[in-house]
């Protein structure tokens, strides 16, 4: 009887911690989906696509460098503390942004600094979260947990743009940044509940010495080199950021609607993508493909088609449908990729591999955001979207041609876990 009571208490404690982890992620996602609409409204005031490109570049560039540090620090230490630190810094950055807009400073550079702070903190958050979740649930439940978390986070992505558009209809844009800051406060408080992290993860008390951090990063690179499918996919994600993500977020708001209605139409497009993400998450939790990465790559051809549809000036209802389908593909990709890394990579290297994933995926984004913003002053947005859509399609076909990617299986007997030495 005592053992049964103790087992129920332990399961209840683990469930509360996982719930707290979910609340933290969902709160941050909801706030983050307020900001894209707000950034478009602010960028129109500062000069349009060029200003938006610079803002996104300053937000993305620091996250590239900080991701490697976040992954090295999360392995063998307390990833929860790193996540809380990231929340606090992002809270401060968005409060600063809200103040700048509320007092109508009128200068772009203070906003760029605030978004650089945000990006630096965000880069550390992702690898730490990637280490913490597998410490909270058994491996057999990872794909189902990833799918459940994806659905809940995508629900926040649906509500965020809707709320943002409603706020902008009757209030100033600074309120959206203040609301985003509040969500990071909620996330930090929720993460304070998470204390149990003993599923194969050992928390050390070592200092964050520079030499040790560099050695940790180097060992993570050596680990990734032993699994060529990791390097191919990370390289593909870098190309995808350059040819699909950056063009969509810089050019999309100005292609989806007539001048003067960018914020409302873009908010509807993001909402459609969020709805698609929910549907994709519901489907992905039940999928058991033999070659999950190959399946996801073929589905990613839709992203090139999405940019081409924008370039063609397709009717808004069609664009919303394409956006919803692309959101579903993104959810399936996210769940399958996260589960593949969690189950194929040795646990003690997980944070560093996630850091390399963040670094490789985002390294091209700052350059792409800035370059597309500058190119938009010399070339019309539709032509740029055509070129980007074609290059995104080529990158996808190249990635799926690698045997190492095609050989990554989805069932336990197909797995060949990464093995290396520190």
Task: Characterise this structure.
The chain has 422 residues and is mostly helical. The chain has one domain: MFS general substrate transporter like domains (Growth Hormone, Chain: A, Up-down Bundle), CATH 1.20.1250.20. It is 78% helix and 0% strand. The chain contains 17 helices and no strands. It has helices at residues 2-32, 35-46, 49-74, 79-102, 108-132, 142-170, 174-191, 210-225, 228-255, 262-284, 292-299, 301-311, 316-344, 350-362, 365-375, 381-400, 403-406. Helix 9 (228-255) packs across helix 14 (350-362) and helix 12 runs antiparallel to helix 13 (316-344). The longest helix is centred in the first third of the chain and has 31 residues, at 2-32. The relative contact order is 0.16. Residues 1-6, 198-206 and 411-422 have low confidence and may be disordered.
